[in-house]
Amino acid sequence: MAMFLEMFRYPFMVRALIVGSLVSLCAALLGVSLVLKRYSMIGDGLSHVGFGALAVAAVLNLAPLKVAIPVVVISAFFLLRLRESSKLKGDSAIAVISTSALAFGVLVLSLGGGVNTDVYNYMFGSIYAMSGDDVILSVILSAVVLVLFVLFYNRIFAVTFDENFARAGGLHTDAYNLLISALTAVTIVLGMRMMGAMLISALIIFPALSSMRLFKTFRSVVLSSAVIAVLCFWCGITASYMLDTPGGASVVLVNLAVLLISGGLAVIRAHRRG
Protein backbone atom coordinates (compact mmCIF):
# COMPACT_ATOMS: atom_id res chain seq x y z
CA MET A 1 0.00 0.00 0.00
CA ALA A 2 2.85 2.39 0.79
CA MET A 3 4.40 1.78 -2.62
CA PHE A 4 1.00 2.24 -4.27
CA LEU A 5 0.51 5.63 -2.59
CA GLU A 6 4.08 6.55 -3.46
CA MET A 7 3.17 6.52 -7.16
CA PHE A 8 1.06 9.65 -6.72
CA ARG A 9 4.09 11.63 -5.58
CA TYR A 10 5.46 11.66 -9.12
CA PRO A 11 3.85 13.99 -11.70
CA PHE A 12 4.61 11.62 -14.59
CA MET A 13 2.68 8.83 -12.83
CA VAL A 14 -0.30 11.08 -12.21
CA ARG A 15 -0.32 12.11 -15.88
CA ALA A 16 -0.08 8.47 -16.94
CA LEU A 17 -2.96 7.40 -14.69
CA ILE A 18 -5.26 10.21 -15.84
CA VAL A 19 -4.68 9.80 -19.56
CA GLY A 20 -4.50 6.01 -19.41
CA SER A 21 -7.81 5.74 -17.58
CA LEU A 22 -9.57 7.98 -20.09
CA VAL A 23 -8.12 6.23 -23.14
CA SER A 24 -8.87 2.79 -21.68
CA LEU A 25 -12.46 3.86 -21.06
CA CYS A 26 -12.88 5.16 -24.62
CA ALA A 27 -11.32 2.03 -26.12
CA ALA A 28 -13.52 -0.28 -24.06
CA LEU A 29 -16.77 1.47 -24.99
CA LEU A 30 -15.99 1.48 -28.70
CA GLY A 31 -14.55 -2.02 -28.53
CA VAL A 32 -17.93 -3.58 -27.75
CA SER A 33 -19.41 -2.29 -31.01
CA LEU A 34 -16.32 -3.20 -33.01
CA VAL A 35 -16.18 -6.76 -31.66
CA LEU A 36 -19.89 -7.33 -32.23
CA LYS A 37 -19.56 -6.03 -35.80
CA ARG A 38 -16.63 -8.43 -36.29
CA TYR A 39 -14.37 -5.51 -36.97
CA SER A 40 -12.18 -5.75 -33.89
CA MET A 41 -8.85 -5.73 -35.75
CA ILE A 42 -9.46 -2.17 -36.93
CA GLY A 43 -7.39 -1.07 -33.95
CA ASP A 44 -4.38 -2.96 -35.19
CA GLY A 45 -4.77 -1.62 -38.73
CA LEU A 46 -5.25 2.00 -37.71
CA SER A 47 -2.34 1.84 -35.27
CA HIS A 48 -0.06 0.92 -38.18
CA VAL A 49 -1.44 3.85 -40.13
CA GLY A 50 -0.75 6.01 -37.09
CA PHE A 51 2.82 4.77 -36.99
CA GLY A 52 3.29 5.77 -40.62
CA ALA A 53 1.93 9.25 -39.87
CA LEU A 54 4.13 9.59 -36.80
CA ALA A 55 7.17 8.58 -38.84
CA VAL A 56 6.46 11.38 -41.31
CA ALA A 57 5.94 13.85 -38.45
CA ALA A 58 9.22 12.81 -36.82
CA VAL A 59 11.19 13.25 -40.04
CA LEU A 60 9.62 16.66 -40.73
CA ASN A 61 9.87 17.78 -37.07
CA LEU A 62 6.11 18.29 -36.77
CA ALA A 63 3.83 17.78 -33.77
CA PRO A 64 3.15 14.00 -33.73
CA LEU A 65 -0.46 13.93 -32.50
CA LYS A 66 -1.55 16.87 -34.66
CA VAL A 67 -0.32 15.02 -37.73
CA ALA A 68 -1.43 11.51 -36.81
CA ILE A 69 -5.01 12.24 -35.71
CA PRO A 70 -6.35 13.65 -39.04
CA VAL A 71 -4.44 11.04 -41.06
CA VAL A 72 -5.82 8.13 -39.03
CA VAL A 73 -9.37 9.55 -39.06
CA ILE A 74 -9.27 9.84 -42.87
CA SER A 75 -7.87 6.32 -43.07
CA ALA A 76 -10.73 5.04 -40.91
CA PHE A 77 -13.24 6.57 -43.31
CA PHE A 78 -11.42 5.11 -46.29
CA LEU A 79 -11.21 1.72 -44.61
CA LEU A 80 -14.95 1.72 -43.97
CA ARG A 81 -15.71 2.62 -47.59
CA LEU A 82 -13.27 0.03 -48.86
CA ARG A 83 -14.93 -2.59 -46.73
CA GLU A 84 -18.43 -1.74 -48.00
CA SER A 85 -17.80 -1.17 -51.69
CA SER A 86 -14.78 -3.26 -52.61
CA LYS A 87 -14.04 -6.93 -53.03
CA LEU A 88 -11.62 -6.52 -50.14
CA LYS A 89 -13.71 -7.36 -47.09
CA GLY A 90 -13.06 -7.06 -43.37
CA ASP A 91 -9.63 -8.33 -42.39
CA SER A 92 -8.34 -8.17 -45.98
CA ALA A 93 -9.00 -4.44 -46.22
CA ILE A 94 -7.33 -3.88 -42.84
CA ALA A 95 -4.31 -5.95 -43.86
CA VAL A 96 -3.82 -4.01 -47.09
CA ILE A 97 -3.96 -0.61 -45.42
CA SER A 98 -2.02 -1.50 -42.27
CA THR A 99 0.89 -3.25 -43.98
CA SER A 100 1.17 -0.52 -46.61
CA ALA A 101 1.22 2.22 -43.95
CA LEU A 102 3.76 0.35 -41.86
CA ALA A 103 6.04 -0.17 -44.85
CA PHE A 104 5.70 3.50 -45.77
CA GLY A 105 6.62 4.53 -42.22
CA VAL A 106 9.70 2.31 -42.18
CA LEU A 107 10.78 3.69 -45.58
CA VAL A 108 10.35 7.29 -44.44
CA LEU A 109 12.36 6.64 -41.30
CA SER A 110 15.17 5.00 -43.24
CA LEU A 111 15.37 7.96 -45.60
CA GLY A 112 15.17 10.41 -42.70
CA GLY A 113 18.05 8.99 -40.70
CA GLY A 114 16.63 6.06 -38.75
CA VAL A 115 14.42 5.49 -35.72
CA ASN A 116 14.66 8.08 -32.96
CA THR A 117 13.52 7.67 -29.37
CA ASP A 118 10.12 9.32 -29.86
CA VAL A 119 9.14 7.06 -32.74
CA TYR A 120 10.33 4.04 -30.75
CA ASN A 121 8.05 5.13 -27.90
CA TYR A 122 5.05 5.33 -30.23
CA MET A 123 5.81 1.89 -31.61
CA PHE A 124 6.15 0.10 -28.27
CA GLY A 125 4.53 2.52 -25.85
CA SER A 126 5.91 4.94 -23.28
CA ILE A 127 3.10 6.46 -21.26
CA TYR A 128 5.51 7.80 -18.66
CA ALA A 129 7.14 10.08 -21.22
CA MET A 130 4.01 12.11 -22.00
CA SER A 131 4.46 15.87 -22.04
CA GLY A 132 2.06 18.39 -20.55
CA ASP A 133 0.74 19.32 -24.01
CA ASP A 134 0.13 15.64 -24.81
CA VAL A 135 -1.86 15.27 -21.60
CA ILE A 136 -4.05 18.31 -22.28
CA LEU A 137 -4.78 17.24 -25.85
CA SER A 138 -5.46 13.65 -24.77
CA VAL A 139 -7.87 14.70 -22.01
CA ILE A 140 -9.81 17.03 -24.33
CA LEU A 141 -10.13 14.48 -27.14
CA SER A 142 -11.02 11.66 -24.74
CA ALA A 143 -13.78 13.83 -23.27
CA VAL A 144 -15.10 14.53 -26.78
CA VAL A 145 -15.14 10.78 -27.58
CA LEU A 146 -17.01 9.95 -24.36
CA VAL A 147 -19.58 12.71 -24.82
CA LEU A 148 -20.33 11.72 -28.42
CA PHE A 149 -20.62 8.06 -27.47
CA VAL A 150 -23.14 8.86 -24.73
CA LEU A 151 -25.14 11.26 -26.93
CA PHE A 152 -25.46 8.75 -29.79
CA TYR A 153 -25.57 5.61 -27.66
CA ASN A 154 -28.99 4.43 -28.93
CA ARG A 155 -28.03 4.91 -32.56
CA ILE A 156 -24.69 3.16 -32.08
CA PHE A 157 -26.61 0.30 -30.45
CA ALA A 158 -28.96 0.07 -33.45
CA VAL A 159 -26.15 0.12 -36.01
CA THR A 160 -24.18 -2.47 -34.05
CA PHE A 161 -26.89 -5.11 -33.77
CA ASP A 162 -28.96 -4.85 -36.95
CA GLU A 163 -27.73 -2.36 -39.50
CA ASN A 164 -30.29 -3.35 -42.14
CA PHE A 165 -33.21 -2.93 -39.74
CA ALA A 166 -31.85 0.42 -38.58
CA ARG A 167 -31.54 1.58 -42.18
CA ALA A 168 -35.10 0.45 -42.92
CA GLY A 169 -36.24 2.45 -39.91
CA GLY A 170 -34.83 5.64 -41.39
CA LEU A 171 -31.53 5.76 -39.52
CA HIS A 172 -28.57 7.13 -41.46
CA THR A 173 -26.39 4.10 -40.79
CA ASP A 174 -23.49 5.31 -42.94
CA ALA A 175 -23.17 8.44 -40.85
CA TYR A 176 -23.07 6.52 -37.58
CA ASN A 177 -20.63 3.98 -38.97
CA LEU A 178 -18.40 6.91 -39.86
CA LEU A 179 -18.87 8.28 -36.35
CA ILE A 180 -17.76 4.98 -34.81
CA SER A 181 -14.76 4.89 -37.14
CA ALA A 182 -13.76 8.47 -36.33
CA LEU A 183 -14.03 7.95 -32.58
CA THR A 184 -12.03 4.74 -32.88
CA ALA A 185 -9.34 6.48 -34.90
CA VAL A 186 -8.93 9.26 -32.33
CA THR A 187 -8.78 6.71 -29.50
CA ILE A 188 -6.17 4.65 -31.34
CA VAL A 189 -3.86 7.62 -31.83
CA LEU A 190 -4.18 8.65 -28.18
CA GLY A 191 -3.61 5.08 -27.04
CA MET A 192 -0.47 4.65 -29.11
CA ARG A 193 1.44 6.84 -26.67
CA MET A 194 0.36 4.54 -23.85
CA MET A 195 0.44 1.07 -25.43
CA GLY A 196 2.37 1.51 -28.65
CA ALA A 197 1.29 0.59 -32.17
CA MET A 198 1.99 -3.09 -31.47
CA LEU A 199 -0.32 -3.41 -28.43
CA ILE A 200 -3.07 -0.81 -28.70
CA SER A 201 -5.62 -3.21 -30.23
CA ALA A 202 -5.60 -5.13 -26.92
CA LEU A 203 -7.36 -2.20 -25.23
CA ILE A 204 -10.21 -2.53 -27.72
CA ILE A 205 -10.57 -6.30 -27.85
CA PHE A 206 -9.81 -7.74 -24.40
CA PRO A 207 -12.28 -5.84 -22.14
CA ALA A 208 -15.13 -6.41 -24.59
CA LEU A 209 -14.44 -10.14 -24.86
CA SER A 210 -14.17 -10.48 -21.08
CA SER A 211 -17.50 -8.71 -20.56
CA MET A 212 -19.25 -10.83 -23.18
CA ARG A 213 -18.27 -13.95 -21.24
CA LEU A 214 -20.11 -12.66 -18.18
CA PHE A 215 -23.04 -10.57 -19.42
CA LYS A 216 -25.59 -10.80 -22.23
CA THR A 217 -27.27 -7.40 -22.75
CA PHE A 218 -25.55 -4.63 -24.67
CA ARG A 219 -25.81 -2.11 -21.83
CA SER A 220 -24.37 -4.48 -19.23
CA VAL A 221 -21.55 -5.49 -21.57
CA VAL A 222 -20.68 -1.85 -22.27
CA LEU A 223 -20.69 -0.89 -18.59
CA SER A 224 -18.72 -3.92 -17.43
CA SER A 225 -16.25 -3.49 -20.27
CA ALA A 226 -15.60 0.08 -19.16
CA VAL A 227 -15.06 -1.01 -15.55
CA ILE A 228 -12.78 -3.90 -16.54
CA ALA A 229 -10.69 -1.70 -18.83
CA VAL A 230 -10.03 0.96 -16.21
CA LEU A 231 -9.32 -1.56 -13.42
CA CYS A 232 -6.97 -3.55 -15.66
CA PHE A 233 -5.13 -0.38 -16.58
CA TRP A 234 -4.65 0.62 -12.94
CA CYS A 235 -3.53 -2.88 -12.00
CA GLY A 236 -1.15 -3.03 -14.95
CA ILE A 237 0.41 0.37 -14.23
CA THR A 238 0.74 -0.48 -10.53
CA ALA A 239 2.46 -3.76 -11.40
CA SER A 240 4.68 -1.92 -13.87
CA TYR A 241 5.74 0.57 -11.21
CA MET A 242 6.38 -2.05 -8.53
CA LEU A 243 8.13 -4.60 -10.74
CA ASP A 244 9.85 -2.13 -13.08
CA THR A 245 8.27 -3.66 -16.20
CA PRO A 246 7.02 -1.94 -19.41
CA GLY A 247 3.68 -0.25 -18.79
CA GLY A 248 1.90 -1.26 -22.00
CA ALA A 249 2.90 -4.92 -21.79
CA SER A 250 1.87 -5.07 -18.12
CA VAL A 251 -1.59 -3.69 -18.91
CA VAL A 252 -2.07 -6.21 -21.73
CA LEU A 253 -1.08 -9.16 -19.53
CA VAL A 254 -3.51 -8.07 -16.81
CA ASN A 255 -6.26 -7.86 -19.45
CA LEU A 256 -5.30 -11.35 -20.63
CA ALA A 257 -5.55 -12.70 -17.09
CA VAL A 258 -9.02 -11.19 -16.68
CA LEU A 259 -10.09 -12.67 -20.02
CA LEU A 260 -8.97 -16.14 -18.94
CA ILE A 261 -10.72 -15.77 -15.57
CA SER A 262 -13.96 -14.57 -17.16
CA GLY A 263 -13.82 -17.46 -19.61
CA GLY A 264 -13.41 -19.88 -16.72
CA LEU A 265 -16.34 -18.32 -14.88
CA ALA A 266 -18.48 -18.59 -18.00
CA VAL A 267 -17.67 -22.30 -18.31
CA ILE A 268 -18.51 -22.90 -14.64
CA ARG A 269 -21.81 -21.03 -14.98
CA ALA A 270 -22.76 -22.98 -18.10
CA HIS A 271 -21.89 -26.25 -16.35
CA ARG A 272 -24.10 -25.39 -13.36
CA ARG A 273 -27.00 -24.48 -15.61
CA GLY A 274 -26.53 -27.71 -17.54
Report on this model:
The chain has 274 residues and is mostly helical. The chain is built from 13 helices and no strands. Helix 2 (11-36) packs parallel to helix 7 (132-151). It is globular, with a radius of gyration of 19 Å. The termini are far apart. The model has no long low-confidence stretch (mean pLDDT 82).
Output the keywords:
274 residues, mainly alpha
Biggest sheet character = none
> Can you count the beta strands?
0
The number of helical segments is: 13
Question: Which stretches of 5+ consecutive residues score pLDDT under 50?
Answer: none
Mean pLDDT: 82
* Beta-strand residue percentage: under 5%
- Cα-atom radius of gyration: 19 Å
SSE order, one letter for each helix or strand:
HHHHHHHHHHHHH
Structural class label: mainly alpha
Distance between the termini: 42 Å
Shape: globular
Helicity level, as a percent range?
over 70%
Q: Would you summarize the structure shown here?
A:
By secondary structure, this protein is an all-alpha fold. The protein is built from 13 helices and no strands.
What is the secondary structure topology, with strand pairs?
Elements: H1 2-6, H2 11-36, H3 42-60, H4 64-85, H5 91-112, H6 117-124, H7 132-151, H8 153-161, H9 163-168, H10 173-195, H11 201-214, H12 218-243, H13 247-273
